[in-house]
UniProtKB/TrEMBL annotation:
This is Bifunctional protein FolD protein. Residues 10-111 form the Tetrahydrofolate dehydrogenase/cyclohydrolase catalytic domain. The gene is folD. Homodimer. Pathway: One-carbon metabolism; tetrahydrofolate interconversion. One of its GO terms (molecular function) is methenyltetrahydrofolate cyclohydrolase activity. GO terms for cellular component: cytosol. It comes from candidate division WS2 bacterium ADurb.Bin280. Keywords: Amino-acid biosynthesis, Histidine biosynthesis, Hydrolase, Methionine biosynthesis, Multifunctional enzyme, NADP, One-carbon metabolism, Oxidoreductase, Purine biosynthesis. GO terms for biological process: L-histidine biosynthetic process; methionine biosynthetic process; purine nucleotide biosynthetic process; tetrahydrofolate interconversion. PANTHER family: C-1-TETRAHYDROFOLATE SYNTHASE, CYTOPLASMIC (PTHR48099:SF5), C-1-TETRAHYDROFOLATE SYNTHASE, CYTOPLASMIC-RELATED (PTHR48099). Residues 125-259 form the Tetrahydrofolate dehydrogenase/cyclohydrolase NAD(P)-binding domain.
Length: 268
């Protein structure tokens, strides 16, 4: 079964559409011209327009210094007309990602960086919420299932692993180079792929009847690709595609966080 995110996305947006949009601005900070970032920012702006949310992109050259970017965030934290801030990842090498993400006020942290960094937070990261929304929509229960997360990255793998541990799940974090890397994948009921993208996994790597959630994204030739090569799966296991799986739901959950930070209650 293909676990499309479109139906999940539509349900969330229908819920948001019933509410008045927050009056404040959603500030989107982008440094450089990363292709995947451009694609996702475009999707965020399109959704903002649909929901009548005021969104503004603050775009900076790759040469911006860390101090300059911190000053921009400080100004947005103090700006009463801004009620949500997100920093599009990746950032250039001269900028400390942790320092930048830590600088965002918890009252405006729509990406849930506070949770990722183990600090004060008011919302969970959108990708964590999106993965759970996809599983719930397709009646895939985590209870009594062996879950393996592949890749311990900053945005997805590491915080998702901690979240599932907190929920009492039977979860394991698998990184490249670990012993019996591919053999251990065969033991999992649910696999979350979060290595960053590049189609390094295929139908031979997962057990019959398992569930594979592809939460990776890489851009090439203006297209998005994930970790999973899907052409020969042929019903062996259920999977979420890239594009069209977790990605659109993540964008929707970002806006859910924006609404929640603005004291709007949602039944999701």
């Amino acid at each position: 079964m293909i676990l499309s995110g479109q139906a999940v996305f539509n349900k969330i947006i229908n819920e948001l559409s019933r509410l008045d949009a927050p009056s404040g601005q959603l500030a989107i900070l982008q440094v450089g011209n990363d292709l995947a970032s451009n694609i996702y920012i475009k999707k965020k702006l399109e959704l903002a327009k649909t929901l009548s949310v005021k969104a503004q992109v603050y775009k900076f050259n790759n040469s911006i210094s860390e101090d300059e970017l911190l000053e921009e965030i400080s100004n947005l934290n103090e700006n009463q007309e801004v009620s949500g801030i997100l920093v599009q990842i990746p950032l250039p090498s001269q900028i400390d990602r942790t320092k930048i993400c830590s600088a965002i006020s918890s009252d405006k942290d729509v990406d849930g960086f506070g949770y990722i960094l183990g600090k004060e937070c008011k919302v969970l990261p959108p990708t964590i919420k999106a993965i759970d929304q996809v599983l719930v929509h397709y009646n895939i229960l985590k209870k009594d299932k062996k879950i393996i997360i592949v890749g311990g990255g900053f945005l997805v793998g590491s915080p998702l692993f901690r979240y599932y541990q907190e929920e009492g799940c039977d979860v394991e974090l698998l990184n490249e180079g670990d012993d019996l890397y591919f053999e251990r994948l065969q033991e999992a009921d649910i696999v979350i792929l979060a290595t960053g993208g590049g189609a390094v996994f295929d139908h031979t790597h997962f057990a019959q009847g398992s569930v594979v959630i592809d939460a990776s994204t890489i851009a090439s030739d203006s297209k998005l690709y994930g970790d999973l090569e899907t052409s020969l799966i042929d019903g062996k296991f259920s999977f979420s595609p890239v594009p069209g799986g977790v990605g659109p739901v993540t964008v929707a959950m970002l806006f859910v966080n924006f609404y929640l930070l603005n004291s709007l209650v949602l039944d999701l």
